[in-house]
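Researcher: Structure for this, please.
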Amino acid sequence: MIIVRVAGGLGNQMQQYAMYRKLKSLGKNVKLDLSWFDADNQKGLAAPRQCELKLFKNLPMDICLVDERDKYIKRNVLVKALNKLVPATSKIFEESRMYHPEVLDFEDKYLKGFFLCNKYYADIMPDLQNDFVFPTHSDDRMQKRNEALMEEMMSINGGESVSIHLRRGDYITQKANLDLFGNIATDEYYDAAVSYVLDKSPDAHFYIFSNDPEYAMNKYPDRDRYTIVTGNDGPDSLLDMQLMSKCKYNICANSTFSFWGARLNTRKDKVMIRTYKMRNNQEVQTEPMHDYWQNWVLIDENGIIK
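Model: Predicted structure, token format:
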């Protein structure tokens, strides 16, 4: 059996789920471990999380039993010592680089990682697009507004719509996150991405999604060109991802949330734009990145298309 641990925010949960689905597509006996979200495990975390995968409608999931999980993660001192001395004997696999092709050959492992790399599951993306079914908004009026926005995004100026995700909040206020994720989705990055879009679609209209709408309004004040999207908050916040997925162009932050807004985009004419790197402690090389993220436009923090 293979067990995939689910942890982190919604975007990371979706990636771990995508890895689970990829392994299932290969005929593996694989289940998900959701115990990271248990109340005892969430105590003391700077940003407590819930399992938001459950917000999607009827998302198919095989959840492991406690004894199935314990078979892998409960190890005595001797086993831990052996695993440290001979890593190949360990039943626990921990992600340590951007892409681990060996994961796809595992038969008996407990997997810990975020599995961000698009190459893992790009081939099953149509299945994921079909199965990630969004809920309706908790407010009927906001649901109607969202439906009107999606129709507009598909039709405005011949469908030349663009989503821009500005991830701020904890990326700015928490020093650890600022050190890890800051100064990647820079002004230069966004300016270059907007110029790239306008070169191809001069009449494009931009929809701005941010956890700091006041900043977004000040950064993009032209209401004829930019619409600041608000109203999808709390448990309804994942509906911003649904809206992003209806735009022709997706300009992502270094955030898995907006990566999934682009991934779930089923438009044949879509253009996906992302930051060249995700984290400041990440070594990136252009050729592998284009292999890992095929059909994505990569722009670095200096506004240079890679």
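Researcher: Any notable elements?
Model: The domain at 134-299 is CATH 3.40.50 (Rossmann fold). DSSP finds 13 helices and ten strands in the chain.
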